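Trying the structure run again after the queue cleared.
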Amino acid sequence: MAKSYRISRGKEYIIVTVDDSGAYIIKDMAGRKIFLSKYQAKLMKFGISSVIGDSLKSSDEDVRIEELKG
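Done. Tokens:
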């Protein structure tokens, strides 16, 4: 069963859906979607962690992650 999460900071948010195969669908506030295979998602996670991970840790922004039901 697919799980969806809302990741927000203030009034801005994205919806991330992870399906059973491990693929990701990322939808922004304007309704644009990005589809990532399981392999692409692993590469993106590695890239984000390596390139900008340290700058995100020092951020004082309040980021909320909540699982969406239904």
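The mean pLDDT is 85. Worth checking whether this holds up in the mutant runs.
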